[in-house]
């Protein structure tokens, strides 16, 4: 019985301790009793509900019924228990349960012990739950504090970060500006360096040129000094010469004055002489008039006749050296200024040109028709001076051309009438069809050509200055129109119509070169 009493007291103490501890943690313990207590003497069963408020949580515990434990004097026992339950703190100096408890039966005690065990279990649970609640709240507070601190730190960090970003941005801008300025300065430095190099090169060139000019200038100064010294010498010589000339001029002036005086005297004498000269001239003129009235005209060539005033083409008599009888010739007074003596003429084939050496020497034909004047007369004519030769040609198509040679000369018979014709010009081809270095005359009976194995005069007919056999033969066979082509022995002039074309008309004439 004494053990049961102790357990009951312990239970009451534990209840007090638990309530006190809960008050100390800031919690609030509320105990309520539901139902009617035993005090009052009720017979209905009583149940106890214990409610605990811890922060936002509330806990409700069902306490064991004490009615079963009361004896027939429940009022006294209930008062004891109720007092114990309502007490807030154990009474110091408390000396165990009252005497009534000690008088309880063993069954009641067992029942009370089981109730105590339940109560102790409930208290343990209550304590555990209180601890759990306190731990959760602490963790929540800690978590809240950590969150607050974290938020604060995050806010500080974000502000610092934004500040750092702004500072970084400003620094970047400043860095970019600095880099930009640095690059500009570098470019300017490079340009300055280049310009400096150019200026140095130009300066070097200018320096070289100045040095060259100095050198050249010094040489020029030396030359000038030399020239000055030479000119000083020459000037002195000139002064000396000038003095001499002045002296000579003075002497000449004196001589001229004396001459003028002599001239005055001579003029007086010359007047008488002039009168005598006029009388003599009149006498000479009268004599010349008498001579001309008695003189017979003896023209040497057609130019003499032309200059005597005869400008009509036709037959005239000329006197050739060593030929006593006059020779009748045809003078062309129209072609190229006139004055031409025609010595060969062909235009209709009426005269046969197949002649001997002698005939070509003496001439044949009609001066008004076709004619060959003769080599001997022509030779003697050419001895009178320098003559020019002109060859007039016409083909069957009516083309009129000519070849002219400034220098014409015909050697004598001893030289086989060698012909020289130079200074070619004209329209019958760009080149001459006569040999310029001289060729001897050949006839069928006198072979003087350059063909060793042939006789050109026999092959080509007529007499001519053949070479071997040459580019021309104006004394060949006369072929009429239609028969004149492909004839090697016709009247040909190679550079006019080729080697086998026979021309329609020809004329060979001479006149003095200085006409
Ligand atoms: Ca021959």
From TrEMBL:
Signal peptide start-end: 1-21
Region Disordered, annotated ranges: 82-101
Coiled coil: 210-276
GO biological process: angiogenesis
Pfam (any one): Fibrinogen_C
InterPro entries, alphabetized: ANG-1/2/4, Fibrinogen-like_C, Fibrinogen_a/b/g_C_1, Fibrinogen_a/b/g_C_dom, Fibrinogen_C-term_domain, Fibrinogen_CS
Family matches, as PANTHER family: ANGIOPOIETIN-4, FIBRINOGEN/TENASCIN/ANGIOPOEITIN
Domain Fibrinogen C-terminal, residue spans: 293-514
SMART domains in the record: FBG
The entry's keywords: Angiogenesis, Coiled coil, Disulfide bond, Glycoprotein, Signal
This protein's name: Fibrinogen C-terminal domain-containing protein
Gene: angpt4
One GO cellular component term noted in the UniProt record for this chain: extracellular space
Entry superkingdom: Eukaryota
